[in-house]
Specification:
The protein is mainly alpha-helical and 329 residues long. It has helices spanning 4-20, 59-68, 82-91, 115-122, 131-138, 152-162, 176-189, 198-207, 219-237, 273-276, 293-296, 311-317, 321-328, and strands at residues 29-31, 40-42, 74-78, 99-105, 110-114, 254-257, 260-263. Helix content is 40%, strand content 9%. A hairpin with a 2-residue loop joins strand 6 and strand 7.
Length: 329
């Protein structure tokens, strides 16, 4: 199953079996599992399904498209995915049904969530309900990491008070205003409302003796994080469209490695050069054995080291990249 071709073959096999084995009293519509990416097939050939053709990579958004084009008064979506819950709440106003339910829980203990009721109650505190997709994306989902030490529950309080900061996240191009507002939201999640940037928030929390794990991401890392959240929110907010318009993921905080997308965590060096100059060791033998604390971490000795007086000796013994690599192994 690690091979994409095997997954595609299995998807086609299951899709065809679902259609051929459909009960007579049921209508089965299958999409996304055929050789053509936008293909949709129905167990009854006389039903018009052209509107359901579309390019959706995941079933999460494709289900929204199917719900919108359904003429049933009561809809039940059987799923246990949190992403689908947020999608249903956000896109309910585009559907024709009177009641929308989500069947969650287990087979022995099912739970039916009244999406229509949840949306109405949510509008009392968040008039623009669609912003919950932006909230879900930036605070962590399947494709975007979460903020360490801050769960959905703790971040939700900040969102209810400042949801307008995420109003434009996932809408069109990511401009400077949207980026600045998203960074301000991150600072508020970490309870540093006075900070103008994530770097300033880190400095303020560090001065309060907070551990490194309790600090927000750097401004550089936050920028890439926001780009990924913006891209994911764009996908969700266009779930009602057959052909969503999306930018290339490589421009939105991802890199392509061996034909796979991996998150780009930073664009700057992990340690500034000025910090390297602060490294020092207490070696007094001129580092002839290359076992001092500096070289153990792959860094040369600096002027702050006690072996500074044996500078000429150290120059002769400075290891090349291959030596450092062998020491690491």
């Amino acid at each position: 199953m690690a091979l994409d071709d095997n997954k595609a073959d299995l998807a086609r096999f299951l899709s065809e079996k679902l259609l051929t084995g459909a009960p007579v009293e049921k209508i089965v519509i299958v999409g996304g599992g055929f050789e053509e990416e936008d293909a949709v097939k129905c167990s009854r050939p006389n039903i018009h399904i052209r509107a359901l053709k579309g390019f959706h990579e995941e079933a999460d958004t494709r289900m929204i498209l199917h719900c919108i084009h359904s003429d049933a008064e009561f809809l039940v979506v059987s799923c246990q995915d949190t992403d689908v819950f947020f999608l249903l709440v956000s896109h309910l106003d585009k559907m024709n049904c009177k009641q929308l339910w989500m069947r969650a829980g287990t087979s022995k203990k099912p739970k039916y969530l009244p999406i229509f009721t949840i949306r109405e109650r949510l509008k009392e505190t968040i008039p623009e309900v669609e912003t919950i997709l932006s909230f879900h994306a930036i605070t962590g989902c399947d494709t975007v990491s979460y903020f360490a030490g801050h769960s959905k529950k703790t971040a939700w309080k900040t969102f209810t008070e400042h949801h307008m900061l995420l109003r434009n996240l996932g809408n069109g191009d990511l401009d400077d205003f949207t980026m600045k507002s998203a960074k301000e939201f991150i600072c508020r999640v970490y309870n540093v409302a006075d900070a103008e940037s994530c770097n300033e928030a880190r400095t303020m929390l560090f001065s309060r003796c907070r551990s490194p794990e309790a600090l927000p991401p750097t401004s550089d890392a936050a920028r890439l994080h926001i780009r990924r959240a913006h891209f994911q929110a764009m996908i969700w907010k266009q779930a009602h469209l057959t052909n969503p318009t999306l930018p290339f993921p490589e421009t939105m905080g991802w890199s392509r490695l061996n034909d796979k997308l991996v998150p780009k965590l930073m664009s700057l060096a992990p340690v500034p050069e000025s910090c390297d100059e602060m490294v020092n060791c207490g070696c007094k033998s001129g580092c002839k054995t290359m076992k001092c604390s500096c070289w153990n971490v792959g860094l040369p000795c600096t002027g702050a080291c006690k072996c500074r007086s044996t500078k000429d000796v150290r120059r002769q013994n400075v290891p090349n990249d291959a030596t450092i690599k062998n020491q690491g192994q």
